[in-house]
Amino acid sequence: xxxxxxxxxxxxxxxxxxxxxxxxxxxxxxxxxxxxxxxxxxxxxxxxxxxxxxxxxxxxxxxxxxxxxxxxxxxxxxxxxxxxxxxx
Length: 88
Description:
Blueprint: E1 4-7, H1 9-17, H2 20-32, E2 43-44, E3 51-56, E4 59-66, E5 71-79, H3 80-83
Parallel strand pairs: 1-5
Antiparallel strand pairs: 2-3, 3-4, 4-5
């Protein structure tokens, strides 16, 4: 049974701010998470439960998998140099 893709408000805004050509490259990777939320190449992030990362060139998609609800929640999307910075 396929998962449902949901975006947080922050992730939706970040996705809309990406250049149009990057959006067209990232969209198929997000859509593919419906059928396989843990594809080859995805990595589970340390220090967070059920949060994974998928690479699309220099861009990253951070998402949470909720198996009981069959939901993939996109947390963040952006360039790799800005993805893992923590605000102080």
